[in-house]
Amino acid sequence: MSKPIRKLLRFLISENSLYLFSALCLLLGCFQVMSGQAPGAASLKTDLPLLATFKFYEVLVVLSCCVVFRRLAIENDGLLLACIALVLFLDPTAFNTRFYSVDKSMGLAVNAVCFGLVLVNISLLRWVGRLPISRSACMGIASVAALIYFGPALLDADFSNVSFTSTLSQDHRYYFLWWGLLVAAAVGRRWIESEPRAGELSRHRIYYRYLDAVLVIFPFIILLTHLFLMEGVFSVKIYPACFAPVILGLMLLVERVVPRALDRHAGLALVGMWSAVLLSGSHSPEAQLQVAGVLVTPARFVAFLNALAGAVLYCRSGSAPFLAHSLLSGAACVAGATVPAMIDGVITLQPEPLAVIWLFSVLAALRFGRPLDVGIAGFTSILQLVRVLDLTPHVAVFSAIQLTGLWLIALGRMYDIKQLVNLTAELAGCLMLYTYVALKADRFHHDPIQAYFIFQIVGFFAMGWVFRQKSLCGLSACLGGLDLGLASFQRMQTVDFSGLARDLGGVGLLFLAFLLLFVGLVFSFRKEQLLAWLGDDRN
Known about the structure:
The protein is mainly α. The chain has helices at 3-15, 18-34, 44-71, 75-89, 95-100, 104-128, 135-155, 170-187, 206-234, 244-257, 265-280, 298-317, 320-335, 344-347, 351-368, 371-388, 393-414, 418-440, 450-467, 470-489, 500-525, 527-534; strands at 289-291, 294-296. The chain has a two-stranded antiparallel ribbon.
């Protein structure tokens, strides 16, 4: 056996990337089957067995995690399965709105069963698998799952006659769902209660830190997707100010990973720019809330929530950016006005040319790490986010998270926070895989954004190779390079993300997902023997 092949096999077995391939095939298969027909009574014959298959796979992943982590004592594989299970818990395939849009009572019943299964699986991981899951982590996962599975009922018109929600419009109830993001980020603290000192970390203990970040980042990604889907199903209007909870939640993540990191001058500028630009789009006479006979516009309503949340977080952490966020939001609440019109001329840049400016500014921030470079990268990221809000909601979801992830990486490079850089790069690789799945499933509905996504993909390629993030970023780069190469060879006007899923079909991909999961388990059981047979990769 040649040395390159032996090194590749050793890498696949030691890191057990087959688990990631298996989960990716599952999501691709589900989206492939679901994209064949629109939600309706005719699709129930396909959707119900597909949901049962998805949940069966989820249970298999949980049981496999328990066996690998507790019986085999392989932390690397066990915690990787735990990361996959955490993503599957939160319904990344958006079955909740699919069933609810067909029949409300049936959708609510299905969502209740799925939510109960999430609680059961969390219990299995904690008490059967003996994973060191903290109570706050369990509460965080459960709170996000509750928002996902019971959010449609809150937006239902029939629910408006119940108790205190009768005084709230549908748009304002939608705002409260968005603020559930912040609640979930605040409740779910760390995966483990106490983290050992750096000198006591084993080689695979870094996965605990990945779980800490995944506990916040991936619920954000999936819950944002669900919120945008609910917008289309229930015909509610979204305002840019809805992203304010995302900003505060990600600030909580930074404070959690690197204590008091946002007390630096870059944090203050970040919060000020985000607050100003996001609140600029929230001033609208629509969706007014009547309070004591006075109509309150979304600008004042959301700004008041921003000010309140910033004040509470400042009291908890003492971090200056939270105080700045509270003061800026309070001023916007009193004024109820938008940002001066001089910013509008800058924001009117189209997404495609702005993507070029954004990409180079982010790469400059990664290369030099000076405060000015980071500030320019953050500002162009804000402009890019505001511009893509006019496109398909899924584009805005992924763009928001991608831009924020790159900004965190730039912040980590600026202050030489190696752990934060590696962690966010790894999460960016996960997000890129999820973006491939959504693109392949035609979730973007052929919007004219090919150039925009090409620039983003190139940026993530550079990031993945620079930071050498093993499985996820490497897989993202390989998939994206193959797809872009095929697109260029065929002179296609659109980027057709990989014909593999189309050739295999949804059922074939689902079968491949279970097969790869089984092979991954075999690798876990025979890992020592296989690695010994392959020998030392340095030879």
